[in-house]
Amino acid sequence: MPHTDVYKRDIYKNSCLAFKTVTDDFRSTWHAHPEFEIVYIESGFGCLHYGKQQHIYQKGDIFVLGPWVPHEFLEKSKNHHSISLLFNNDFIIPGFLDCELAQEIKAFLNKARMGLVFNAKMEQSETDIIKLVLSQSGLDRAIHLLFLLRKFSEQPVSQVLSNTPEEQCCSKTFAKLQDILAFIHKNAYRKLLLDEVATQFYMSRNHLSRFFTENTGFSFSQYLLKLRIERASELLLKSTKPITHVSEESGFDSISSFNRSFLREKGLSPREFRKQLKNT
């Protein structure tokens, strides 16, 4: 199934959302949500942006992501298979994590707020449990998720994604960020200046610039360029449009600027990039 915008879904407190993504053209939007998220990469490789950090992922990696931390997965292999599990503290019953029997899981989830990575060398049993959580529903799903978290708490972590949980957005900050990002995504492929975005959201240019960088890890110009290069890459791969048309439709004001930016970001000229991908 194609990726769904998770942050638009309602997840009840006493439940766990589980879904599988299988696609050759995967790109999640920059988003956050109040739930923890477990993502198991069954196949494919790419880059996870998590708060201000980046992590190259590969087949077999398992991520446990904290609530309200903006993130996105950028698939590079054109062969993405993953399983995602979303849940909050009260996925069993309210206050469950405060009881004595759940202290190990509570400690694990407190650590997971900073983002954790388990690598492909993890025991097969953990990935089997993730698949079980996906296939079950109701109480059975909750029980298997509980068992999975207990197993995680006993395993060595290969990497902590963030040194502090300070990258987490409060819901109000994230709502504003989502509105700004939606506006940028909608208008990225025309002439778009920071001043226009600042005016749109009743912010000063400097305030918006600081807000944007603090909450995405990118400057406004870096993020805009990133969107335009990815749009150009998609057009080069999926269409036969002349490179000058690709440049214009991706928001670049000149072919020379496009060629220079694309070469710097991708390590290949647009022509070389198209030729290489068509031959693979």
Automatic annotation (TrEMBL):
Q: Which residues form the HTH araC/xylS-type domain?
A: 178-276
Record flagged with keyword Transcription regulation: yes
Record GO terms (molecular function): DNA-binding transcription factor activity; sequence-specific DNA binding
What keywords are assigned to this protein? Answer: DNA-binding, Transcription, Transcription regulation
Q: Which InterPro entries match?
A: AraC-bd, Homeodomain-like_sf, HTH-like, HTH_AraC, RmlC-like_jellyroll
Which Gene3D superfamilies does the entry mention?
Homeodomain-like, Jelly Rolls
Could you tell me the superkingdom of the organism this chain comes from? Answer: Bacteria
Q: Which N-terminal stretch is annotated as signal sequence?
A: none
Q: What is this protein's name? A: AraC family transcriptional regulator
Q: Which organism is it from?
A: Zophobihabitans entericus
